[in-house]
Request: fold
Amino acid sequence: MNSRLAALSAAALLVSCGYDVPSSVENGVAVVTQFQPAANFDDYLTFSIDPTVVVVDETGSVSTQFTVDGANLVPTISSNMRERNYTEVPWLGDATPADLHIKMSATLGDVDTYTYYPGYCGWYPYYYCYPSWSYAGSYNFGSLVLTMGDVKNAAPGGGGKLPLIWTSSARGVLSEYYTPGVPSGGANVNWARIQESINRAFADSPYILRTP
Amino acid sequence: MRTAIVRIAIAAALLSGSVRAEEAWVTTPEYRPRQTLFIVNWEITGPIGSFGDYIDDTSFRGGSIEFRSFVSEKISLGLSFSWNRFDQTFDLVTAPLTNGTASGPVYRYADMFGVRALAHYYLAPGPLQPYLGVGIGGAWNYAFQQVADVSDAQENFNFIVDPEVGLLYWLAKGGTSAALNLAFRYTYTTATVGRESDTQALSGIVGLAFGY
Reply:
């Protein structure tokens, strides 16, 4: 009898083996930043920001691409760059005479944001340390990618592509705020959440600095 | 004389009554030395070393069962099975990557199942029985991390060794004896959780021991 009670007690200790990921984590934003090791951020003086966000929607069976206006995000990026002693030049298109071009793109769905960039910039094959990380959610998706292209040192005849010296990906930042496949024009986007992720990306990148 | 006879009669009656009472109350078989201990423990465990860098919250979810068989008056050999769960949520973690960083809210979790061969040396007989012990065996570990909607996990089987000091406080003796088991244990494993290896922990143990 005693041994039976003891065995039941032992079994009770092993009950409740599940675990719950807090919603603050599931709905949180992961920001990954990477830089080109050869880049010297002190070499650049001016920057310009393209206010257009290229959105790649992978939530449906067919990938779609559209653009939305990201002008709401430009001041956040701009203030971070100006705080680091860079001078802003108004965006006049890909021919804008600035040392650095900063572009925004967004991906919706379970997309590897570290290997796909639409259109404009080239990509250095950086090593990413978490190749085994996998998608864990079913609803919390949507990433905003910032890229910093090096106009100053771009090779002639680069086919319109620039070498990147810095990238940032805020994963999960768009969450459920976009309706898949429907260009929202930013009407239902949580801009404050995105701006917070941009600020964190710069805070995580203290090497982006021009010595005064 | 009559008084003396009455006193003897009363004494005899009382004595016979006490004998009957003893027969009525003592139902356990005759006492015999304990040959086997079966112990159920509750374990409160705090990660230390690199494991403390992964999770530093104390775990209150853990337990073990032990079987000890005496091979001499002071030495027992046995086997134990244990389970310990650790988890913690971090509001913001910034981790270095190659040429960059990753940051975000993080949930970390680790389960550790251990199976050990046990050896214990009992320092003194009696109702308070201090002992020294060691367990050597293997531990299956499962560790999980989630940042926003991406996750990673590690699963491995490793070496485990854990010396301990303890005390058995015998509450009842009989055919089956019962004791309170109090112990303090240091655990070392070669397990890897997240980026941390050589998992270590300190445990406070409270249990109930049954001796047969």
